[in-house]
Amino acid sequence: MSVFGPDNLPLGVFQYGDQSPRIGAALGDQVIDLTPLELSDTFAEPTLNAFLALGRPAWTSLRAALLELVRTGAVEPHLIPQSAVTMLLPIEVGDYVDFYASEQHATNLGRLFRPDAEPLLPNWKHLPVGYHGRAGTVVASGTDIVRPSGQRKAPDAAAPTYGPSQRLDIEVELGYVVGSPSALGQRVSVDDFREHVYGVVVLNDWSARDIQGWEYVPLGPFLGKSFATSISPWVVSLDALESAAVALPAQDPPVLPYLAGKNLVNYDITFEVRINGDLVSTPPYRDIYWSPAQMLAHMTVNGASVRTGDLYASGTVSGTEQNQLGSLIELTKAGREPITVHGKDYTFLQDGDEVTITAHAGDLGLGEVTGRITPAV
Amino acid sequence: MSVFGPDNLPLGVFQYGDQSPRIGAALGDQVIDLTPLELSDTFAEPTLNAFLALGRPAWTSLRAALLELVRTGAVEPHLIPQSAVTMLLPIEVGDYVDFYASEQHATNLGRLFRPDAEPLLPNWKHLPVGYHGRAGTVVASGTDIVRPSGQRKAPDAAAPTYGPSQRLDIEVELGYVVGSPSALGQRVSVDDFREHVYGVVVLNDWSARDIQGWEYVPLGPFLGKSFATSISPWVVSLDALESAAVALPAQDPPVLPYLAGKNLVNYDITFEVRINGDLVSTPPYRDIYWSPAQMLAHMTVNGASVRTGDLYASGTVSGTEQNQLGSLIELTKAGREPITVHGKDYTFLQDGDEVTITAHAGDLGLGEVTGRITPAV
């Protein structure tokens, strides 16, 4: 279990005994049961969506009120150990969009998937490339991941075969949770990011590379991704994350005006990826090429609306160093150069393996997302 | 308004005066207000989802009961003219998946988007290629379509520009509405198609070809599609459609066992596409390469679950003849060979244009989906 400081107060949905699921805030290794504090009716709901729909002014005032109740100790009668509760999926997901915003990751994947071409495609520095994932298979941290089956074809094979994925992978990502909706036909400006986005989760976009490699032209990834996406249970607010904000790296070539802004930020977050407890990578978020405000502006530039509960993710976070790569396909050069886990050669996920991704921004914890692989059925 | 025979009884959500939205069945040019008939509590809901979640046995028995009430004339006190009601979005959409199941369309698009390569990619006859679309922008027939803006780049330009799409297009499709959910980690067999899918809608997958052409590598279509997808208001049940079922065309090479079945069907449906009232195309559905049962089996072969309200579409329906193509990009050879609409050369959609797609299977009407283009904002 993660430990959360008194200025963080991330929100999540917990179940305690046979009581109804409801909303709590994390404080240290405790959950604050928010319902009896009577701050908002929305805290009795089984997802954060009703709270998220209240919008920025309510988020800010409720956070201030809760910070004060923590400071005065008024929350103490309502603390429950995190070890005594089950954390559920915090949001009912509307649409799930996955971006591809790490230059290092896009370059690495380009080299692996298209070895005979320029790794970074011509559009990549002009727009945050993204696609829609499957919202209905976004699952709570701790949910077992059944090894997916499907079609895959070796480059030299005449025809595809069917069977369990042999190249099951992770993708280390940051997910952004939309609170306030936008209207159909209206763009969201980069300056309105904080009006629409409530906070972040740690996200593992499980990926079956063999399935993905065969299916993905020309319409993009589908079954190689859609079997499961795990998110951390505690949604950390942008307000709490503000101390981790850093300026966005310079973008060259300059972006079109709808993607430009004076106050574009990124977050100085570091992930830690463990397989069966062994640390295998520490991807850094701060140098991601596209800011989350640009992702939101791009996603709505065509008039597409966002809804409360929409989730959009950064894409795999990879740094420049070998021990900063956010997927096994990168860490192992597509399986050709195994890494070492618990003293043994390791390429892709094996049945029974447990992957845990934690994240923090200095002292600010973002919690963890975890999942264990179970055999194909 | 479409006219529906007494054996069809498609379901939709209507609003009459200032009464709450609720569920009705179409009969001729009337709506049967189902709530006072007390067949099911779910008919008082503002979407079909609760009814859909009841599953196949309930769908069948409720249809039998309604057919009998129509036969005896017991519905007559509950008829409201369709002209007096507003039809709303019939379902709350879970995930929206768009397939690419017409061989003729995939071949035509391959030639236009990748002129230097084989038009049909190597995976196309081994699996029904598909991708996730944006569920939150599936809109009711009649909703105005705001011309999307975004990035596009001419092949010979050095950099992309921003502005309203100049190549706004339609895609004529059939949409399948999922009723009964499936469990995460479990495959749905081709034989269980009718247990999970309730019925069909006519679907127009509006497409901005210039935006799509620039953005779509390597992760597939995104903003070129996500601004709007329109569906017809009346969901025609598979039971009603059964009279239109035809054997699936032979598939060569043979498909993998999870896609094979003895009773795979297609539907002998013909679309009529009108722009400002002028008939421009009549795409035939019957020769679509992949059956909807195969699409469902493929979509879940990796263990992805389906939810009540999920919508999956065939992809653009195009026949072999010039007057059977299901998109303007095909009808006009990417704008190079205009068609004639109301006596004038015509390539892509202009502001103010109204597109109406109707569909029928012999005497069985599927109704219509319509939308008018409004200027970019």
Automatic annotation (TrEMBL), chains A, B:
Source taxon at top rank: Bacteria
Residues covered by the Fumarylacetoacetase N-terminal domain: 8-90
Protein EC: 3.7.1.2
Enzyme class per UniProt: hydrolase
InterPro entries reported in the protein's UniProt record: Fumarylacetoacetase, Fumarylacetoacetase-like_C, Fumarylacetoacetase_C_sf, Fumarylacetoacetase_N, Fumarylacetoacetase_N_sf
Binding residue positions for Ca(2+): D98, E171, E173, D205
UniProt cross-references to Gene3D superfamilies, sorted A to Z: Fumarylacetoacetase, N-terminal domain, Fumarylacetoacetase-like, C-terminal domain
Listed name of the protein: fumarylacetoacetase
PANTHER family: FUMARYLACETOACETASE
Catalytic site: H105
Organism of origin: Kribbella antibiotica
Pathway: Amino-acid degradation; L-phenylalanine degradation; acetoacetate and fumarate from L-phenylalanine: step 6/6
UniProt binding sites for substrate: Y100, R114, Q212, Y216, T316
Keyword set, alphabetical order: Calcium, Hydrolase, Magnesium, Metal-binding, Phenylalanine catabolism, Tyrosine catabolism
Entry keyword annotation includes Hydrolase: yes
Fumarylacetoacetase-like C-terminal domain residues: 97-373
One Gene Ontology term of the molecular function aspect: metal ion binding
Keyword Cell membrane appears in the UniProt entry: no
Record-level GO BP terms: homogentisate catabolic process; L-phenylalanine catabolic process; L-tyrosine catabolic process
Cofactor: Ca(2+); Mg(2+)
